[in-house]
Amino acid sequence: MSANKGFCGPFAAYLQSFLAEKRALGFKCIEQERCLHEFDNLSLGYDCSSGLPKDLVMAYVEKKPHWSRSTQRHKVSTARNIAVFLRNHGVSAFLCDEKCATQDQGNFKPYIFTRQQIESIFQRADNISPRGSVNSDLFYPVVLRMLYGCGLRISEALMLKMKDVDLSEGLLYIYDSKNHKDRIIPMDESLTPFCRKYAEQIHALYAEEDYFFKSPRSGGSYAKHTVYYYFRELMWKCGISHGGRKNGGPRLHDLRHTFCVHSLHQFLKNGTPHKAALPVLSAYMGHSSLDSTSRYLRLTAEAFPELVARIDEIYGHVIPDLEVRLVETD
């Protein structure tokens, strides 16, 4: 969708004003503009002479077969924002309920690794045998520690350039990731030495635009499917069974889920005020909303039993029930 294309529906002037206000506050609104254009095009088929009608709103937020639950929740949020803006400007508008998104939690079943399993994964990665110029023995010990230690998405890690990795300060700079968010990630003190050693071995000479995790074959970034495949091999060697995507993994992305859960556990264990813990973690993870963070954090009684009571007491009203599959290995 071209950023220069104007709106043409019955609410065109209001949508343009809405977008202008957001950008005046410093928001990029790339994804939001796309959603507003979808809404604008849809509105052309409805009678809006008396304001924003219910049937238009419900058609806009109705879940499509290929949508994830988070996509539908985003549509609901967009529709509500439009309605509130119109009402504030004296236009009658139907305001849909936040809970009108389809109640489908079944596809979200993160696998939470135990700390022992994380250590086992790292040990296996550290013992990968060198194979010519492939560099697997150098790459996997670092990238897996980064995924777990910083809660990165695999795409964020693989897209890091040399200029994005500050090894003197121990910082990672993430640009235009999911939800078009930029953020600065402090690395744990235990991770930074691994990154320094990797850089010394791989990047004796480099340009700032070189990928930090540079593929020895192409010179570009590693392919995500290559990392997925090798991760499955490591799971097998660690004795961690894989139940498939529908049965809870474990998947590579579950290292991010696990970081989130382990971090909240540490926050509460250290006495961090509950009103501070969740927003801080949300910003660190690069989530679009606090709700996005909360959906990660429903634990079963098998994982940190002392934390479950705290979560129910503190966050019970904002965190929906979430099935988390935890499998212990010998």
Using the 3D structure, state the CATH architecture of the domain at 134-246: Orthogonal Bundle
Count up the helices. 13
Quote the beta fraction.
under 5%
| Low-confidence sequence ranges | 315-330
The whole-angstrom Rg is 23 Å
H/E element order: HHHHHHHEEEHHHHHH
- CATH level 3 topology of the domain at 134-246: hpI Integrase, Chain A
Q: What class, by secondary structure content?
A: mainly alpha
Q: Mind summarizing the main beta sheet?
A: 3 strands, antiparallel
User: Could you give me the name of the CATH homologous superfamily of the domain at 134-246?
Assistant: Intergrase catalytic core
Strand order of the largest sheet: 1-2-3
Average of pLDDT: 82
Shape: elongated
> What is the CATH level 1 assignment of the domain at 134-246?
Mainly Alpha
Measure the end-to-end span. 52 Å
Number-wise, the strands total 3
Helix content: 40-55%
Provide key terms for this protein.
hpI Integrase, Chain A, 330 residues, 3-stranded antiparallel beta sheet, 47% helix
What is the compact description of this entry?
The chain is mainly alpha-helical.
